[in-house]
Design a protein that fits this description.
By secondary structure, the protein is α+β, with helices and mostly antiparallel strands. About 55% of the residues lie in helices and about 15% in strands. It has a 5-stranded mixed beta sheet with strand order 1-3-2-4-5, sandwiched between helices.
Length: about 170
Amino acid sequence: MASWYRIGHRYGTPDAPVKIVQFGSHGCGFCRDFHFAIDSLRTTFPDQVGLTWIHAVGDGGKLDGPANLSAVASECAARQGRFESYHDAVFRSKSLPGSARDLTRLARGIGVPDTISFEACLDTRETEAAVTQHLELAEAADLPGTPVWYLNGRRYVGAATYAELLGLVTSTLR
C-alpha cells in the first residue's frame, strides 16, 4: 500500500484519519457516481478524509481510447498542481474529452497555468510511463473491475452511495 500513496494522486487532508484509495477510470460510469459520493463525503468531513486516486481498469489494468487520453492529461495537469481540479472536471463533463484539443480546453477551463507545456506533456513517454506505473499497481491489486476502493486498508468493490460512505466513515471515526 505504501507504493499506492507514493504513485497515486493524493488530495484532501493528507493526515486524515480516514484514507480512501480508489482504483478507477475516467471512462467508468460507476467511478463517476462514486466520485460524486466521495465529493459529498468530503463536504461533510472536510478534515477527516484523505483520498488517493490510481488510474485503472479491471481488464488486465489496460486503458484505451478516451480514458487513456484522460489519464495522460490528468498526469499533465498534476505536473502543474491541478490534478484534483482536472479529475473533478472530467467527471463533471457531459462526455469524456476525446481529443488533445478537448483536453487542452478542459485544462484551460480549470486554470492550468501553462497550456503550451500541458499540450507538450500529452505526447511524452514520461507521461505514459507515469500512467503505466498506475496500471501496474492496478494489475498487482487483481481488480475484478472498477471502481475498487480501500477505506483504511479494507477492500470494497463497486461504487458506494453517499449514505453507505457516511455510515462507514462515521463508524471508522468512532
